[in-house]
Design brief:
heterodimer; A: 256 residues; alpha/beta; Rossmann fold; six-stranded mixed β-sheet; four-stranded antiparallel β-sheet; B: 303 residues; mainly alpha; MetI-like fold; 2 domains; globular
C-alpha cells in the first residue's frame, strides 16, 4: 500500500513582491526517504524548501497561495503556531550556523525554548545531549569538553552539531539546504553517510546543486525550472531515463 | 488522523512566552519613545523663551550693550568663518589620513599605534585641547591668539571624527569592486580615485558635516584663543560680511552665549535664550542637512 505523504504541496504559489518565484507547485514527499530538490540557480528549490517551515515569512514582502499539508494540517492556516511547526520541521542550513555558545547549550537550546524552566531536568538534558551527539557520531570527539564554544569546531563538526541539535525536539521532517557545500570531500562523505542513517526515521528533503550528490544520496528527485516542477520520480529513473527533455539536458550538463 | 485536530496548536508554554514577547516589545518601545521627551521639551522651552527676542533685526544688528539689548550679527558671522577655516584645515588632512589608514597602511605596529592615537585624541576633553592650542600654537610657535589659532585648535579636536568616518566609509566599499579594478590592470591609486572615493563620498561628507556642527558648537577650545565678548566691527560695506582678520580677536556664538549667561549681570531671559535658539537652529540644520545628504546618496547606491 502507498504510504501517506508526509509533506503534501498543492497548487502552491509564492511571490517576493511582484516577482512570482513559485508557480502553482504540487508535490507529495514520502516519509522515510530522502527527496532531492535539483535545478539551476533561481529555479525556486530553496524557496520551496524554506516554505515548509515558513521561514521565508520573516521577509515582509512574501505572499503565498495554495496549501502545504504536514501531519494532516495545512501549515499556512492562521491557527498554526510557528514555534510548534518548527519543532516538527527542522532545518539545516547551507553554511553551518552553530550558535556562539557551548556545544552543550547548542543541543539543549531547542528543548529549553519549548520547556518551562521548572520542568527542565539536568539529568534528562545530559541524556539528550549524549544521545543526540552519539547519533551524529560526534560524541567521542567532543565528550570531554562539552563546554567548548561550538563555533570553535571544524566546519564538518559544526554541521553535525547543527543536525544533532534538531534531534532532541523529535522532528518529523528535516529540511536541508545544500548541507555539504561548505565542506571538503571527506566532510561531504561523512555528512552524507549520516543523512542516510537518519532517513528511515525522518522525512528528509535536501536541496542540492551537486548532480553527483543528488544521484548518490537521494531516493527520489524533483527537478525544478523557473518556479515549476518539471519532473518528480525515483532518482534512478531520473538519471537513467528522464522523461522530460529539459531534465535530460540538465542532468547531462548541457543546460543550467 | 482527524482533519480538525491541529498538530501545530500553540503549547501552553508558548502562550506564556508570547506574553513575555509582548512585554519586551512594549517596554523597549516605550523607552525608545520616551527619548523623544527631553528633546521635545528642550526645543519647546528654548523656543518659547527666545520668541520675544527673535526678529530679523536681532540677527542682523551688532551686539548692543554687551548683548543686553540684543544683536547677534558679530558672533554669528564669527562662528561662520571660524567653522569654515577649521574645515579648510581639517578636511584635507583627515580625509587623506583616512585614505592612507584604510587603503595603504599595512597591519603593523605603526598603523595600530596611529589608530590608538586617533581614538585617544577623540577622548581628550575639549578644555585640554584649548590648553594644548595655547601651549603649542601661541606659547611655542609664537602665533597670535585669534581666529587662525582657534581654528587650528578646533581642527586638532575634530580630526579623529573625519579620520574615523572616512575610514568607515572607505571600508564599506565592497572588496569585489576593488578586485575587479585590479584585475583590469588599474593601479591602487586609480582604483581609489575612480571607484572607491566616489562610492564612499556620502560617508565622508557626513563626517565633514558632523565636524562643522561640532566646531560651531564648541566653547572651551576657543575661549583662550581669541574669542571675546565684544569687538567693534564695521558698520557697513563689504567689511560687514568679513569683519575679522585672520589673527584678530573675534566673537563666536557659543562663546557669546557662555559669556552673556554668566558674566553680564541683569541679562534678560529672552536675550540668553535668543542666542541659544540661534545656535541650536544652526547646528540642528547642519545635522539635518547631513542626514538628507546621506540618505540621498544611500538611495543612489545599488549593490
Amino acid at each position: 500500500m502507498e504510504q501517506a505523504p508526509s509533506v503534501d504541496v498543492r497548487d502552491f504559489s509564492l511571490w517576493y513582491g511582484n516577482f512570482q518565484a513559485l508557480l502553482s507547485v504540487s508535490a507529495a514527499f514520502k516519509p522515510g526517504i530522502i527527496t532531492g530538490l535539483i535545478g539551476p540557480s533561481g529555479c525556486g528549490k530553496t524557496t520551496l524548501l524554506r516554505s515548509f517551515n515558513r521561514i521565508n515569512e520573516r521577509y515582509g514582502n512574501v505572499k503565498t497561495t495554495g496549501n502545504i499539508t504536514i501531519l494532516g494540517k495545512n501549515i499556512l492556516d492562521t491557527d498554526v503556531s510557528i514555534a510548534s511547526l518548527r519543532k516538527r520541521v527542522g532545518m539545516v542550513f547551507q553554511r553551518p550556523n552553530p550558535l556562539p555558545i557551548s556545544i552543550y547549550e547548542n543541543i539543549v537550546f531547542g528543548v529549553k525554548s519549548h520547556t518551562p524552566g521548572r520542568e527542565r531536568k539536568r539529568s534528562a538534558m545530559d541524556q539528550m545531549v549524549e544521545s543526540a551527539l552519539r547519533e551524529v557520531s560526534l560524541w567521542d570527539s567532543v565528550k570531554d569538553d562539552l563546554q567548548r564554544k561550538a563555533t570553535e569546531l571544524t566546519l564538518e563538526q559544526q554541521q553535525k552539531l547543527c543536525i544533532a541539535r534538531l534531534l532532541p525536539l523529535k522532528p518529523d521532517i528535516i529540511l536541508m539546504d545544500e548541507p555539504c557545500s561548505a565542506l571538503d570531500a571527506n566532510g561531504i562523505e561523512r555528512i552524507e553517510e549520516l543523512i542516510t542513517e537518519l532517513k528511515s526515521r525522518f522525512t528528509i528533503i535536501m536541496v542540492t546543486h551537486n548532480m553527483a550528490q543528488a544521484r548518490r544520496a537521494s531516493d527520489e528527485c524533483i527537478f525544478m525550472l523557473m518556479g515549476e516542477i518539471v519532473e518528480h520520480c525515483p532518482t534512478k529513473e531520473m538519471f537513467f531515463n528522464p522523461k522530460n527533455e529539459k531534465t535530460a539536458m540538465y542532468i547531462e550538463g548541457r543546460y543550467g | 488522523m482527524n482533519a480538525s485536530s491541529n498538530p501545530f496548536s500553540p503549547a501552553a508554554y508558548e502562550l506564556k512566552k508570547q506574553r513575555g514577547m509582548k512585554i519586551a516589545h512594549w517596554t523597549t518601545g516605550a523607552i525608545a519613545v520616551a527619548l523623544l521627551l527631553p528633546v521635545a521639551w528642550l526645543l519647546w522651552m528654548i523656543t518659547v523663551r527666545a520668541w520675544p527676542a527673535l526678529s530679523w533685526d536681532y540677527i542682523t544688528t551688532d551686539v548692543r550693550s554687551m548683548g543686553a539689548e540684543g544683536g547677534i550679527w558679530g558672533p554669528l558671522i564669527g562662528t561662520f568663518y571660524l567653522t569654515l577655516m577649521c574645515l579648510i584645515i581639517v578636511a584635507p588632512i583627515g580625509v587623506l589620513a583616512g585614505i592612507y589608514i584604510n587603503e595603504y597602511a599595512p597591519d603593523n605596529a605603526l598603523t595600530r599605534s596611529i589608530m590608538v592615537a586617533v581614538t585617544s585624541l577623540a577622548g581628550v576633553p575639549s578644555i585640554v585641547h584649548a590648553l594644548f592650542g595655547l601651549g603649542a600654537f601661541v606659547a611655542t610657535m609664537h602665533m597670535k591668539t585669534g581666529m587662525l589659532t582657534a581654528a587650528m585648535t578646533l581642527s586638532v579636536m575634530t580630526l579623529p571624527v573625519i579620520i574615523t568616518s572616512t575610514k568607515e566609509a572607505l571600508s564599506a566599499v565592497p572588496k569585489n569592486f576593488r578586485e575587479a579594478c585590479w584585475n583590469l590592470g588599474a593601479s591602487k591609486w586609480q582604483t581609489i580615485r575612480t571607484i572607491v572615493l566616489p562610492n564612499s563620498f556620502g560617508g565622508i561628507l557626513t563626517g565633514v558635516i558632523l565636524v562643522i556642527a561640532r566646531a560651531a558648537g564648541e566653547t572651551a577650545p576657543i575661549m583662550f584663543l581669541g574669542a571675546v565678548l565684544w569687538v567693534p566691527i564695521a558698520k557697513s560695506g563689504a567689511e560687514r560680511l568679513a569683519p575679522y582678520g585672520i589673527n584678530d580677536q573675534f566673537m563666536a556664538l557659543s562663546n557669546h552665549l557662555n559669556l552673556i549667561c554668566k558674566d553680564i549681570p541683569g541679562m534678560s531671559d529672552q536675550m540668553m535664550f535668543g542666542s541659544a535658539f540661534i545656535l541650536l537652529v544652526l547646528i540642528l540644520s547642519i545635522n539635518g542637512a547631513a542626514s538628507v545628504v546621506r540618505s540621498r546618496l544611500r538611495r543612489r547606491k545599488r549593490w
